[in-house]
Design goal:
- This protein is mainly alpha-helical.
- It has one domain.
- Helix content is 72%, strand content 7%.
- The chain has a two-stranded antiparallel sheet with strand order 1-2.
- The longest helix has 30 residues, at 72-101.
- The radius of gyration is 15 Å and the shape is globular.
């Protein structure tokens, strides 16, 4: 079932938003300063392309310890991210969620878009893992 949902996701809009995440990562990687954001973008791009059966969780929750991206620098990075890229990617996911929610069949896709919109606001310090590993 997860495979079918992911294939339908890619066909009906997931690919476009994954490309948006990838392009944001490329823009961030152009400068050396943007590399932490680029890493977050590429991780979330893969999640945005194939979201069912996976979750995005804080690396602090996953490993039980903090790191550079989950501390004060991660907070500053997420604030900068929010202003430059996060709002636009979140709006894209919310528009896609509304479009998907118009039909009953599209509701699972709308839920995924809302989750991705939330991640769009603060991706630094997040890791994408299999759902069974996140719980």
């Amino acid at each position: 079932m997860i495979l079918l949902l992911n294939l339908l996701w890619v066909l009906f809009g997931g690919f476009i938003l994954a490309v948006g995440w990838f392009l944001a990562g490329v823009l961030a990687a152009i400068s050396i300063v943007g590399l932490p954001w680029a890493r977050a973008c590429f991780n979330i791009a893969s999640f945005s392309l194939w979201p069912f059966g996976r979750e995005a969780v804080s690396r602090r929750e996953l490993t039980g310890r903090g790191d550079l991206g989950t501390g004060a620098f991660g907070l500053i990075g997420n604030i900068v991210w929010l202003v430059l890229f996060g709002v636009w990617l979140a709006i894209g996911h919310l528009v896609a969620a509304v479009a998907c929610a118009v039909t009953i069949i599209g509701i699972p896709f709308a839920v995924q878009h809302v989750k991705l919109a939330a991640i769009s606001l603060a991706p630094v310090g997040m890791a994408v893992v299999a759902r069974r590993q996140a719980g």
